[in-house]
């Protein structure tokens, strides 16, 4: 039964929970972490850890996409980001770092960096540049994934597939199965996906109904959330829209179960995007029903991250309604392998992210991710 709260006469709201509100219950059984598998597979593509990178230029360059792939995850390039618009991205990122320093000195509260990102994203997408970025990833032998916005998916996708993209991510802050447009043809995801030969991951969503609608389009995976990071994203402040992640993940998992029954066996993966800063958050997201996590800010600490410790989401560059700051990430500097697999010396859970997930699964007696989704949960307070 849903927990409804009356917020005024005739108006109720549903009580929802963040990952911080949830705790995992130990079971009667434990096992060795060596006997635990964190492997995850979507369509024909298998990954050793349930990691998909949030598609922001702050953490994903062609080089880091390759590094993530070689470590067992999936790096997602932004096909509408800086690598698609500028030939010398290193120089562009240097300007951004300078803008952050200048804004901090002048007390502008990071308005300067957002203006710069808006200016940089006003340059047109150049298919030759994004094709070259895709080539670098493809030639390494790892799985090639790129993100496009719903607004430009139909326009860009044919060239992206020709360049060698293997997994397409159609992602916006909030997405629906069909965008209603006053002028022009809306993107009908069901028709769009049906014409493609590659798996499509689409999102973000925050509720059961929208998740179910996206699953019915033929998407291989549905993204829950919009990359929420405290102090970085501001969709809740700007639009007043947001669903606490634990509840959003659980609702999408319920839609996945019902859609599985509806179709007689078609499984759609749930990817949790946002609200995760520590290894414990990752474990709780899987426990709430996610098949994989889409990490952003935690990866900004990697020495391989192109943002040099800074973090922002693609919505920072929106020309009229930016919904992300440019912010310093977690205050550590560590190589990507150590960040993902340890060993850790920091006790906050910000290093050894997937080694810790493996230990959490072992401590509760579960041998793989699907089993771990059945672990008991409690709510704080």
Automatic annotation (TrEMBL):
Keyword tags: NAD, Oxidoreductase
Example of a GO biological process term: GTP biosynthetic process
GO molecular function, one term: IMP dehydrogenase activity
Superkingdom as given in the UniProt entry: Bacteria
Pfam families, A to Z: IMPDH (PF00478)
CDD domains named among the record's database cross-references: IMPDH
InterPro entries xrefs: Aldolase_TIM (IPR013785), IMP_DH (IPR005990), IMP_DH-rel2 (IPR005992), IMP_DH_GMPRt (IPR001093)
Boundaries of every IMP dehydrogenase/GMP reductase domain copy: 18-311
Family membership noted in the UniProt record: Belongs to the IMPDH/GMPR family.
Protein name: IMP dehydrogenase
The species this protein was found in: Goodfellowiella coeruleoviolacea
């Amino acid at each position: 039964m849903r927990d409804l709260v009356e917020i005024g006469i005739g108006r109720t709201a549903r009580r929802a929970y963040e990952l911080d509100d949830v705790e995992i219950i130990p079971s009667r059984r434990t096992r060795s972490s060596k006997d635990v598998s964190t492997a995850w597979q979507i369509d024909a593509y298998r990954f050793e850890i349930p990691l998909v990178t949030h598609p922001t230029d702050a953490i994903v360059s062609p080089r880091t996409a390759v590094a993530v792939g070689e470590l067992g995850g999936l790096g997602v390039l932004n096909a509408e980001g800086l690598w698609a618009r500028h030939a010398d991205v290193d120089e562009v990122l240097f300007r951004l770092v300078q803008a952050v320093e200048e804004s901090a000195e002048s007390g502008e509260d990071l308005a300067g960096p957002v203006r710069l990102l808006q200016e940089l994203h006003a340059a047109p997408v150049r298919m030759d540049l994004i094709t070259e970025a895709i080539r670098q990833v493809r030639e390494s032998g790892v799985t090639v994934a790129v993100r496009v916005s719903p607004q430009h998916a139909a326009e860009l996708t044919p060239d992206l597939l020709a360049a060698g993209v293997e997994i397409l991510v159609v992602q916006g802050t909030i997405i629906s199965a069909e965008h209603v447009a006053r002028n022009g043809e809306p993107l009908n995801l069901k028709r769009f996906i049906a014409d493609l030969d590659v798996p499509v991951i689409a999102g973000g969503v925050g509720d059961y109904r929208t998740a179910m609608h996206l699953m019915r389009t033929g998407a291989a995976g549905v993204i829950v959330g919009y990359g929420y990071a405290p102090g970085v994203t501001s969709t809740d402040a700007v639009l007043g829209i947001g669903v606490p992640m634990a509840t959003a993940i659980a609702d999408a998992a319920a839609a996945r179960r019902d859609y599985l029954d509806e179709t007689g066996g078609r499984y759609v993966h749930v990817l949790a995007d946002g609200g995760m800063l520590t290894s414990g958050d990752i474990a709780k997201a899987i426990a709430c029903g996610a098949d994989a996590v889409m990490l952003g800010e935690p990866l900004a600490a990697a020495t391989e991250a192109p943002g040099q410790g800074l973090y922002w989401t693609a919505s920072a560059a929106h020309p009229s309604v930016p919904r992300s700051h440019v912010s310093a990430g977690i205050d550590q500097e560590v190589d990507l392998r150590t960040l993902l697999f340890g060993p850790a010396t920091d006790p906050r859970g910000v290093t050894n992210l997937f080694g810790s997930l493996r230990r959490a699964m072992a401590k509760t007696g579960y041998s793989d991710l699907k089993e771990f989704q059945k672990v008991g949960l409690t709510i704080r307070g």
